[in-house]
Design brief:
Elements lengths: L6 H10 L4 E7 L5 E7 L5 H6 L1 E4 L13 E6 L5 E2 L7 E9 L11 H15 L4 E13 L1 E6 L4 E6 L42 H13 L4 E6 L6 E6 L2 E2 H21 L3 E3 L13 E9 L2 E2 L11 H21 L5 H4 L9 E6 L4 E5 L11 E3 L8 H17 L17 H4 L9 H10 L2 H4 L6 H20 L4 H7 L3
Parallel strand pairs: 1-6, 16-17
Antiparallel strand pairs: 1-2, 3-4, 4-6, 5-6, 7-11, 7-12, 7-13, 7-14, 8-9, 10-11, 14-15, 14-18, 17-18
Helix pairs in contact: 3-5, 3-8, 4-5, 5-8, 6-8, 6-10, 10-12
Length: 481
């Protein structure tokens, strides 16, 4: 598909492709893509400059009904043809603006990411922050859940699930069952060939669709857990562009799964007692085409890269309110499942929260990998907060301490007790954010209103909502007391 750089390019593409519908998309505050559609006759070059109005009062985390009018302004370079709808449709990702002042809306997540990129340039530390997220997910065959006043349950099923080795499957006309086995063992899904890996074809289709809609892919593979855990890696890119690509990523993956009668979740921990789903995120800061994180220090890093690690580790408890923003996130961040619960750094060591990949000695490849984030996050906000922590580390020369080049899980108890750990719950992370957010306010990237609204929304709609509801395991523990 032709790349668009201007409104005229978009209109030309629409004519060439005989487009019938224009779909305008934007991100709500917690992190779901929203959209509405217009006929092609309603889109002209003026719309890119002046925008179109809509009611923002029903968008989660946005302003009240008495200030509900908002404007969407399409961004030409985000255009792509939607492969999953019947009518020929072009998608345009939009920025959100105030209709009275014309100013960019402070709670628009994409605006936060745009401001983070601008702030980096203003500091002189670099002109581009490259991000490379590794978003994992599960492909299931069935998901059922409900919660009422007197009942609550969830049920997940997968033809790949190890729990189904004894199930009657593929029943023929005579009633005979043929369970063919080949189901990945718990924690052993990384990564056997087919037929044990039954998801190869569907992942390949996802990968090719992503490439066709402008998301560059490096690889795809089965992940560690049983039950269809997968990973498709996006090639690194600048902050705002990567936020856009992650939204396209989730959209394509979910729609390909649905096409095949399957369902995808990016929940961090949908299965008990097997590996959860992370989004290890690689970061480097570049200036005038040179990687500022490359140097002659530890693991081939520059001093600024080490300071950036110091900033991320120091602010990690607050960062996790954005990078791991669900109550379910903290069911993944527990010892024993490769989860990075220890706030330390190391080369090659996946038990540390920050890892320095050592696949290549090239200066261009030098970067840090923050292993805590998971794909339930709002990518614009999560990556912006990571960048702000890294910048703060560089500006304040925050020493990350000594690297921990050993399996942290095997440390003696007295040594392990000295290693700081991630928050144990979303409540703890939000409390940390409340205490530590000044670094986010620099350059007006995050406003106090954004931080306050995030904390209030998450506490009210998620933390307290979960606190009110009995858990199924509580009945096993306490019903007969």
């Amino acid at each position: 598909m032709s790349e668009c750089k201007t409104p005229a390019d978009v209109l030309s593409l629409m004519k060439d492709e005989d487009v019938k519908v224009v779909d305008l998309r934007f991100m709500d505050f917690p992190g779901l893509w929203q959209h509405f559609s217009i006929p092609t006759s309603e889109l002209d070059e003026d719309v890119f400059e002046k925008g179109l109005g809509f009611d923002g009062s029903s968008i989660r985390g946005w302003q009240a009904i008495n200030e509900s009018d908002m404007i969407v302004k399409p961004v030409p370079e985000t255009a792509f043809i939607d492969p999953y709808v019947a009518a020929k449709t072009i998608v345009l990702i939009c920025n959100i603006c105030d209709p009275i002042t014309g100013a960019d809306y402070t709670r628009d997540p994409r605006n936060i990411a745009r401001k983070a990129e601008a702030y980096l340039k203003s500091t002189g530390l670099g002109d581009t922050a490259f991000f490379g997220p590794e978003a994992e997910f599960f492909i299931f065959d069935d998901i059922r859940f409900d919660q009422t006043q007197n009942a609550g349950f969830y049920f997940i099923d997968s033809s790949e699930g190890r729990w189904n080795t004894g199930r009657e499957e593929n029943i023929d006309d005579s009633g005979y069952s043929r369970n063919l086995g080949y189901k990945p063992r718990y924690k052993e899904g990384y990564f056997p060939v087919p037929p044990t890996d039954s998801m190869q074809d569907i992942r390949s289709e996802m990968m090719l669709d992503l490439i066709n809609i402008g998301v560059p892919i490096e690889c795809q593979h089965h992940e560690v857990a049983t039950g269809g855990q997968a990973e498709i890696d996006i090639r690194f890119g600048p902050l705002v562009a990567m936020g856009d690509m992650l939204l396209k990523y989730k959209y394509a993956i979910k729609n390909v799964a649905r096409k095949h009668g399957k369902t995808v979740t990016f929940m961090p921990k949908p299965l008990f007692n097997d590996n959860g789903t992370g989004m290890h995120t690689h970061l480097s800061i570049w200036k005038k085409g040179e990687n500022t994180f490359a140097g002659d220090g530890y693991a081939g890093l520059s001093q600024n890269a080490l300071y950036a690690i110091g900033g991320i580790l120091q602010h990690a408890p607050a960062l996790l309110a954005f990078t791991n923003p669900t109550t379910n996130s903290y069911k993944r961040l527990v010892p024993g499942f490769e989860a990075p619960v220890n706030l330390a750094y190391s080369s090659r060591n996946r038990s540390a929260a920050v890892r320095i990949p050592m696949y290549s000695q090239s200066a261009k490849a030098k970067r840090l990998e923050f292993r805590c984030p998971d794909p339930s996050c709002n990518p614009y906000i999560a990556m912006s907060s990571m960048l702000m922590a890294a910048i703060d580390g560089i500006q304040n020369k925050i020493d990350p301490g000594q690297p921990l080049d050993k399996d942290i899980y095997d440390l003696p108890p007295e040594e392990l007790a000295k290693v700081p750990t991630t928050p144990g719950s979303l409540r703890e992370a939000l409390t940390s954010l409340e205490k530590d957010h000044e670094f986010l306010l620099k350059g007006d990237v995050f406003t106090p209103d954004v931080v306050e609204t995030w904390i209030d929304y998450k506490m009210t709609n998620e933390v307290q909502a979960i606190d009110l509801r009995p858990h199924p395991w509580e009945f096993a523990l306490y019903y007969d007391i």
